[in-house]
Write a structure and sequence with these properties.
245 residues
Length: 245
């Protein structure tokens, strides 16, 4: 005997509630249709049209505010989770950075000492290479054609070659510290820094060599000053411009 299937619950065919983003897309679609009808290139011709456009502007502003509020609400849990992760990791990362900083500070004097010794060794090797090269040239010039002179000359040339190789190796050596298992040795790094001592001279130099950079800076500075209320600035034309707000 066949059984009668249970009736589905009420509301089973109701669509799920729209998400804020889906509602926003619907709202902006309607506003876009209305805006397309209004903004066809023709100017506003009467007060009624101005009032209608003002109403559209107000609707777009309110929609924009709602969109942003919904976006922030949807994003907030993710932001809070990210902040919580950052906060949890910050203490150990800060401790690691502190150890790195102190270790580098402790290594620097030793590496500078090694580098100075390396430079002295390099200079001595270079002098020796130059002396041996000069000796080889002298023997070549003074050779009298005898076998003994030829042997002395060739030996001097070989010594000069080996001395040059030693000088080259010394020039490529670096002051480093590397423990077992380290992927990269600790070495000295040269950092160039600057201290402005003559602003006028620097500005003149920038004006000659990079005028566009100076123009961008002064224009940005002037714009900020005018937004802050300045109305008279030497070398700047401050003017009024009106626009719908």
């Amino acid at each position: 005997m066949a059984t009668v299937a249970e009736a589905p619950p009420m509301g089973h065919n109701n669509p799920p509630e729209a998400t804020p983003l889906e509602r926003a897309k619907e709202t902006i679609s309607l506003l876009d249709v209305e805006a397309s009808a209004w903004f066809d290139g023709e100017p506003i011709k009467n007060q009624r049209q101005a009032d209608d456009v003002a109403r559209l502007l107000d609707a777009a502003r309110k929609a924009r505010q709602q969109f942003d509020a919904d976006r922030k609400a949807e994003k907030k849990p993710h932001d809070d989770a990210a902040k919580a992760v950052d906060a949890a990791w910050k203490p150990v990362i800060t401790d690691a950075d502190r150890i790195i900083e102190i270790a580098k500070a402790a290594q620097t004097p030793w590496l500078i000492k090694l580098d100075e010794e390396k430079r002295a060794k390099e200079e001595a090797a270079r002098r020796e290479a130059e002396e041996k090269a000069a000796a080889a040239r002298k023997l070549a010039q003074e050779a009298d054609g005898s076998l003994a002179a030829a042997k002395a000359r060739d030996a001097a040339i070989e010594e000069a070659r080996l001395a040059e190789l030693a000088a080259t190796r010394a020039a490529h050596e670096k002051a480093t510290a590397k423990g077992a298992g380290m992927a990269r040795a600790v070495s000295l790094r040269t950092i160039w820094r600057s201290e402005v001592q003559d602003r006028r001279a620097l500005l003149n130099h920038i004006a000659k060599t990079a005028p566009d950079d100076l123009t961008a800076f002064v224009e940005d500075w002037a714009a900020k000053a005018v937004r802050g209320g300045a109305r008279t600035i030497p070398g700047v034309r401050v003017y009024e411009e009106r626009c719908a707000a």
